[in-house]
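Bumping my old thread because nobody answered last time. Still need a sequence for this structure:
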């Protein structure tokens, strides 16, 4: 866990030759930034002085690893210098970077061990926005001023020979150009009784990473339709990707023994492959690989923008007619309301399991009898309140019908015997359901079982409805728009340190913090750099109910927060030590505006004891995991200055771009009620322009305790 402890003074300057951009207000929709050049970055790790001793009996066997995830997921490293307190490497490493994204280089100092895992001594986080273009920047990082420990590194930022790339951004997230590599394998010859073997093809930096490719036996022209059955790899065009092909083992007999021989993998850089060009790569003596790279469409499947989606805007126009008519009747107006006179009224419900489910039925019935239900344009809920909402929206005209039969049905399910839901025959049905869900491509967790259990406890039969099916209840503006709320967290981090609102509606699901949304039917599918690469069938609504009310997703540290007012003790023992430092440039600096520069930070990991303690406290055994539709996207260089980037004041990871959601493989979603038992965030989005919010509170305990206390 990271925590900034002090403010430091940064003495470097901005290097962006194409910086004339973000003086404008934050965009409310995705826009094409045009052509933006890439740059070549050379990092020379020179030396280190007074390296701290990791082992008690010997000096440190020191090496430095470099990781720049916006340029490559591969970690590079220097050679190891053994038993030396002042190692000198003088090694250079090259990266191709895009200046429009936030590039933070991680320099990790490690002690190599032959038997045990390498010791991680510290990591320096350096914002490359500080570099001067076309000028060498020689930097000394004071790692431990008391012990005179320092790391000396030289940076050089130059033009890249690669052509500029087209970016799509909303001012917070950036989508870069993606290419699709089609790979077709062909057998050159076929011996009798020879069993065909798959080639293992890997494209580093690609979404698919590794695939098995079955060679084709029939002769095939590389330019013909043979690519229709080819394996596809999606990779960022301006990453330095390579294709690696592993040759199958070949066997031959020699006397009475049988030996096997395995040739090393064959590699080929992809930057020399032009769009549409077919390249043939010989693989051993028996195979050849035909490769063709084509650009992916620039149109994204992820909507980057902070505005409301067109479907929701259309719904609001239709709903205004219903609301205006209802208000005229309730307020006994003589004239019709004009369009700009119709207020936007929302109903907000809290969580609370069965208590909130039953109470919400009663509140909605009361609003219906007062003719106020037709005055609302939104209904938001979380946890148990979503059980009521999902049940009602199975009927496209529920709000115009008497709710008393629905309440009677809910009462029947609440009081019925729940034990049959756990009988062996029912559990076998659950097992088969979960097996099928896993085959579809979902990561099955205990939350999915919880969703099936909710379905059997609150219904009589299997419910085939999905979230997107609720659009039928909105087609004419006849019902309020439902919005379901959860939070996105990290598996190894407390909710106090990292949390992000995640909203679901029948139209879209997404993170308002980043301005990124996808159609609700695509939730759970796999995306890369904003493009849909693998569609997975939409989940049934029962799985969504399990997610929205996932009461089992807390870790021990979250449970401590619920029962105590402070977690200072645990943070002291579970967080890594982090401090900002003053990097000392040896060369003269060029004064520029540095509003978007992050402080240079040193992260010192905790001991094995504190790391074990943290893992126990922060591990979530039953959290819901879904494929991250932000995968591959990168943060804009000015994302922290964008007014639309909404964040909590007390979270600590927003200033560490390499650790935010766009870098995660999966979303970890859990019930919001355990942290903030309120569903107001979607209604406070300025784009929704809510005028009045009716708050339905189902929290446990007294609802009037605060007002009943006499003033002190």
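Sorry it took so long. Here it is:
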């Amino acid at each position: 866990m990271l925590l900034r402890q002090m403010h430091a003074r940064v003495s470097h300057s901005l290097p962006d030759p194409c910086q004339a951009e973000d003086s404008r207000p934050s965009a409310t929709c995705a826009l094409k930034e045009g052509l933006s050049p890439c740059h070549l970055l050379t990092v020379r790790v020179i030396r280190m002085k007074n390296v701290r001793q990791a082992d008690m009996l010997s000096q440190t066997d020191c090496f430095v690893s470099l990781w720049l995830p916006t340029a490559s997921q591969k970690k590079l490293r220097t050679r190891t210098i053994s038993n030396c307190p002042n190692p000198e490497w003088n090694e250079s490493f090259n990266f191709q970077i895009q200046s429009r994204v936030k590039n933070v280089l991680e320099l990790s100092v490690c002690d190599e061990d032959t038997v045990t895992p390498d010791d991680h001594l510290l990591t320096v986080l350096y914002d490359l926005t500080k570099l001067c273009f076309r000028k060498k920047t020689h930097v000394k990082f004071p790692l431990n001023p008391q012990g005179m420990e320092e790391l000396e590194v030289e940076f050089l930022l130059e033009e890249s020979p690669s052509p500029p790339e087209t970016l799509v951004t909303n001012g917070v997230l950036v989508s870069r150009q993606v290419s699709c590599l089609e790979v077709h394998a062909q057998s050159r010859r076929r011996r009798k009784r020879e069993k065909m073997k798959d080639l293992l093809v890997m494209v580093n930096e690609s979404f698919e990473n590794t695939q098995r490719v079955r060679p084709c036996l029939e002769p095939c022209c590389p330019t013909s339709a043979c690519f229709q059955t080819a394996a596809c790899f999606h990779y960022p065009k301006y990453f330095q990707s390579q294709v690696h092909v592993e040759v199958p083992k070949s066997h031959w007999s020699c006397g009475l023994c049988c030996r096997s021989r395995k040739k090393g993998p064959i590699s080929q850089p992809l930057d020399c492959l032009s769009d549409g060009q077919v390249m043939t790569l010989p693989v051993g003596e028996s195979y050849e690989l035909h490769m063709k790279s084509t650009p992916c469409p620039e149109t994204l499947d992820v909507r980057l923008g902070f505005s409301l989606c067109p479907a929701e805007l259309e719904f609001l126009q239709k709903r205004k007619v219903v609301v205006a008519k209802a208000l005229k009747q309730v307020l006994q107006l003589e004239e019709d309301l004009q369009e700009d006179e119709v207020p936007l009224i929302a109903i907000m419900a809290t969580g609370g399991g069965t208590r909130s489910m039953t109470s919400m039925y009663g509140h909605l019935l009361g609003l219906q009898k007062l003719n106020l239900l037709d005055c609302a344009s939104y209904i938001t809920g979380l946890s148990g309140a979503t059980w009521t909402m999902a049940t009602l929206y199975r009927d496209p005209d529920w709000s115009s019908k008497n709710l008393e039969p629905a309440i009677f049905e809910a009462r029947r399910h609440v009081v019925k015997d729940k034990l049959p839901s756990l009988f062996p025959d029912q559990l076998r049905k659950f097992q088969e359901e979960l097996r099928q869900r896993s085959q579809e491509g979902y990561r099955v967790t205990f939350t999915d079982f919880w969703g099936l259990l909710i379905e059997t406890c609150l219904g009589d039969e299997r419910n085939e409805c999905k979230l997107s099916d609720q659009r039928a209840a909105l087609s004419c503006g006849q019902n309020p728009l439902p919005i379901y709320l959860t939070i996105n967290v990290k598996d190894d981090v407390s909710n106090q340190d990292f949390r992000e609102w995640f909203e679901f509606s029948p139209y879209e699901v997404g993170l308002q913090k980043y301005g990124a949304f996808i159609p609700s039917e695509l939730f759970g599918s796999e995306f890369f750099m904003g493009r849909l690469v693998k569609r997975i069938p939409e989940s049934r609504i029962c799985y969504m109910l399990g997610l929205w009310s996932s009461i089992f997703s807390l870790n021990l540290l979250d449970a401590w927060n619920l029962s105590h007012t402070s977690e200072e003790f645990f943070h002291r023992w579970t967080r890594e030590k982090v401090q900002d430092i003053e990097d000392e440039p040896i060369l003269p600096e060029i004064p520029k505006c540095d509003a978007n520069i992050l402080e240079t930070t040193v992260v010192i990991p905790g001991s094995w004891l504190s790391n074990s303690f943290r893992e126990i406290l922060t591990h979530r055994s039953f959290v819901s995991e879904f494929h991250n539709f932000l995968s591959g996207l990168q943060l804009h260089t000015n994302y922290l200055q964008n007014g639309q980037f909404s964040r909590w004041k007390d979270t600590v990871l927003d200033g560490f771009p390499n650790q935010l959601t766009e870098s995660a493989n999966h979303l970890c979603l859990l019930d919001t009620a355990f942290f903030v038992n309120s569903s107001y965030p979607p209604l406070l989005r300025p784009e929704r322009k809510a005028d009045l919010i009716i708050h339905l509170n189902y929290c446990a305990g007294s609802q009037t305790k605060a007002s009943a206390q006499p003033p002190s």
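Residues 31-163+573-605 form a domain with the Immunoglobulin-like fold (CATH 2.60.40.150). Let me know if any region looks off to you.
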